[in-house]
Amino acid sequence: MTASGMTEAAGVAPPRHRPGALGDWRREAALWLRSTSAVASVALLAALATVAVALGLGEVARQHAAIERVLDLQASEEAAIAGFAEDAGSAAYYTAHATWDSPSPLAFAALGQRDAAPWVLRVRALALEGQLYESDAQNPELALPGRFDLAFVLVYLAPLVLVALLHDLKSAEREAGRLGLLLSMPGATRRLWVARAGVRAIAVLLALAVPFGFGAALAGAGLLETLGGLGVMVGTVAFWTLLAVLIALRGRRSAVNAAILCAAWFALVLVGPAAGHLAVNAAVPIPSGAELARENREAVHGAWDRPRAETMARFVSSHPEWAPYAAIDRPFHWKWYFAFQQLGDEHVAERSRAYRDGIERRERLAGAIGWVLPPIGLQRALHRLARTDVAAQLEYQERIRAFHAELRAFYWPYVFREQPFGPADFARTPRFASVR
Predict the structure, then answer these.
(1) Which of 99, 113, 109 is nearest to 392 (CA)?
(2) In the chain, what are the domain boundaries?
(3) Residue 290: C-alpha distances to residues 40, 134, 149 (Å)
(4) Mean pLDDT lowest for which of 204-213, 285-294, 341-350?
């Protein structure tokens, strides 16, 4: 039998029919399409990616609807309060002002912190720290695998499909008895491995990118945002493809290659991030937000048992501009009430700054871990593009703080100067504005 006949018998078209690299790619694409298991694995990945995109879009739609409901409730509630509030103190006490963090166009692909941290919060012009952290059960950093979204498919499932497709890149030819023939074709071997790995990597990338592209279009994502998300996918597929090719070309048996690659996936995607999470928490110990909220509440409630004159003296020491209006001539006055609310925030101000600084330090350390563990670094990049990471949550909290300061600046002159407050004044109450 001639070399051409042997090549055809092996299922590889003779080079003379499709010379060069393009012919190699066409041949490998045709061979891949004839592999039922390979096509089925990529089809399954595409189906999972499609489901993840659909679930992500559904969750984002639910969040938008929830924000709209809160705003509708806000309008009706304010109308009711405007009808019975007799003074600024009553209006400030009873009105819960809506704040929200609208999901970005790419949030459907990587929900990140939006799966755990509040994205709608109604705040009153009272002590803020307790309101911020009363729903905080754990520190919001280095989130472990949570909701099934496209980021989960990209980081946890796509590498396994690449391992299945590429672990026997060379060993399959040896085990089928064709490797010697392939190695006898000068210059063709390297092109063969590149084309074979490339075809399979592109198939996996398309299984992820096509659902993502449709989701981005439906979500109204911009071109740069969409290209950024595609770049993260290309980086993830390229990393695992390169790793799989390096292992597969070492000359080991297929089963050994598969075991090594699965161990690498286990270490890089599961063990490494978990160990990094524990290391970062040990390196930067911080209290939970719930503890901070409890301390704030205790400081506020304890003020009821302290002399009013002592409370007002402490207040004007940090807010001297209100000293001329600090006198209280009756058992209860709103100025005293809002003074000890503010003192409650000031009581935990240092711990609150330390808490936020600790979260930011943990986030920086987690970013450094992402450079050591590329899959996690790429996942963090996708969360940053989607604005669903820890930094985005902290930015939302800072916007709430700025809005709360506007509320204090609006209500305090009415309360401390005992100015009349009517519906027209109530209509000028500051409104929170989302950045998206």
Answers:
(1) 113
(2) 35-290+343-426
(3) 48, 6, 28
(4) 285-294
Give me the residues paired with residue 340 across strands.
none
Type and span of the H or E element at 233: helix 223-248
> Which pLDDT tens digit goes with each residue over 220-259?
999 999 999 999 999 999 999 999 999 988 877 888 999 9
Radius of gyration of the chain (CA): 30
What phi and psi values does residue 121 have, to the nearest 5 degrees?
Answer: -145, 125
Give me the amino acid identity at 285: P
Cα distance between residue 87 and residue 352, in whole Å: 32
How long, in residues, is the chain?
A: 436
pTM, 2 dp: 0.85
Q: Give per-residue pLDDT as tens, 88-144.
A: 999 999 999 999 999 999 999 999 989 888 999 999 999 999 999 876 544 444 444
**Burial class of residue 341, CB neighbours in 10 A (0-12, 13-18, 19+):** buried
Rounded distance between C-alpha atoms, residue 131 and residue 77, angstroms: 19
Instruction: Find the largest Cα–Cα distance for the chain.
Output: 112
Alpha-carbon gap, residue 59 to 186, rounded angstroms: 55
